[in-house]
From TrEMBL:
Family membership noted in the UniProt record: Belongs to the NAD(P)-dependent epimerase/dehydratase family.
Coiled coil: none
Cofactor or coenzyme needed: NAD(+)
A molecular function (GO) term: UDP-glucose 4-epimerase activity
GO annotation, biological process: galactose metabolic process
Domain of life of the organism encoding this protein: Eukaryota
Domain NAD(P)-binding: 8-333
UniProt-listed Enzyme Commission number(s): 5.1.3.-
Cellular component, GO, one term: cytosol
Catalysed conversion reaction: UDP-alpha-D-glucose = UDP-alpha-D-galactose
Pathway: Carbohydrate metabolism; galactose metabolism
Protein name: UDP-glucose 4-epimerase
């Protein structure tokens, strides 16, 4: 049981945030969430409370706020003593970042700098940061190893790379800072209950939320971007990881940070080490859902890599963490979420109201 440790989770109402908050509560942590609900809804927090149960939900408080607003941060840090921060808050759509770079530099960079300066003021110097495999750019070889050269291929990726460098600089300047950077590969799936899941606003950028919306009839077909890649079936390969595995990776990183103060600033891949192609994923989802996913073979999407998947050795050895779920479970749980919540957290009625 965890002794009364309070954790601040920024962006805790989001896809990965909610799944991680639920696991933190189950591990006995006290959790404060700040989220501006820019890309999330408070209903997701209500679902977390429902799944955690009455007793554990007493250890969760939600604050509507923005990490770009220093007053919002001051209000929290002057009220609570945080033992560590898990920092999810930020925008994460590659395509959107190309169209609206200001939005990405403002949310991801400015917001993080306000958070870190407030943490320093209140002597809270243990941080788990939500990084991304996108910092590997178009990797020259695979699997991706944490000591590869890093490069960004989009404004979104550049913000993640700059924030990793910022974390390294903060630690170099003050060794009391202990920071773990978690590089997510492709998070998919949902909590086994079907009550939590990914619910992007607008047309999904990512593969699985798009497939999910085709399966429930919200979209007519899936555009498969690229069928001439040098891969067995011609479609691109990625390392998809169950969001519950990802949540457990955060718990492992947090426990390491709370147990020791000589961590420094270290990056870990959170992936499965397995590659799955787009067409293989379509087939797996059809099997899990019993639904036919119509596809249209399209040209490659600019900026996409042929194949990206993780070396998982470092996280296994140093975090004692390894992904447990495979593609079948990811598709099973993604379908349960989609079939029970075809319009995500918004009911169809409110969606119609939004559309009118
Ligand atoms: C996966 C594959 C597409 C949509 C990005 C970010 C990464 C992380 C996950 C935040 C690619 C193909 C997709 C579609 C398709 N985000 N695809 N039709 O680009 O690997 O990674 O999201 O951390 O940082 O870079 O994920 O799901 O967009 O694409 O064929 O409608 O599916 O071309 O091959 P990606 P993705």
């Amino acid at each position: 049981m965890t002794i009364e440790k309070r954790i601040l989770v920024t962006g805790g109402a989001g896809f990965i945030g909610t799944h991680t908050v639920l696991q933190l509560l189950k591990e006995g942590f006290i959790v404060t969430v700040i989220d501006n609900l820019d890309n999330a809804v408070e209903e997701a927090i209500l679902r977390v409370r429902e799944l955690a149960g009455d007793e554990l939900s007493q250890n969760l408080d939600f604050h509507l706020g923005d990490i770009r607003n220093k007053d919002d941060l001051e209000e929290l840090f002057s009220k609570y003593k945080f033992d560590a921060v898990i920092h999810f808050a930020g925008r994460k759509a590659v395509g959107e970042s190309v169209a609206y770079p200001f939005r990405y530099y403002d949310n991801n960079l400015i917001g993080s700098i306000h958070l870190y300066t407030t943490m320093e003021k209140y002597n809270c110097k243990k941080l788990v940061f939500s990084s991304s495999a996108t910092v590997y750019g178009q990797p020259e070889k695979i699997p991706c190893v944490e000591d590869f050269n890093l490069k960004a291929v989009s404004p979104y990726g550049r913000t993640k790379l700059i924030l990793e460098d910022l974390a390294r600089d903060i630690h170099s300047a003050d060794a009391e800072w202990n920071i773990i950077l978690l590089r997510y590969f492709n998070p998919i799936g949902a909590h086994e209950s079907g009550k939590l899941g990914e619910d992007p606003k607008g047309i999904p950028n990512n593969l699985m939320p798009y497939i999910q919306q085709v399966a429930v009839g919200r979209l007519p077909e899936l555009n498969v971007y690229g069928h001439d890649y040098p891969t067995p079936d011609g479609s691109a390969i990625r390392d998809y990881i169950h969001v519950m595995d990802l949540a457990d990776g955060h718990i492992a990183a947090l426990q390491k940070l709370l147990a020791r103060s000589d961590i420094g600033c270290i990056a870990y891949n959170l992936g499965t080490g397995c590659g799955t192609s787009v067409l293989e994923m379509v087939a797996a989802f059809e099997k899990a859902s019993g639904k036919k996913i119509p596809i249209k073979l399209c040209p490659r999407r600019p900026g996409d890599a042929t194949a990206v998947y993780a070396s998982t050795k470092k996280a296994e050895e140093e975090l004692g963490w390894k992904a447990k779920y495979g593609i079948e479970e990811m598709c099973r749980d993604q379908w349960k979420w989609a079939s029970q919540n075809p319009w995500g957290y918004q009911s169809k009625a409110s969606e119609d109201k939004l559309a009118s």
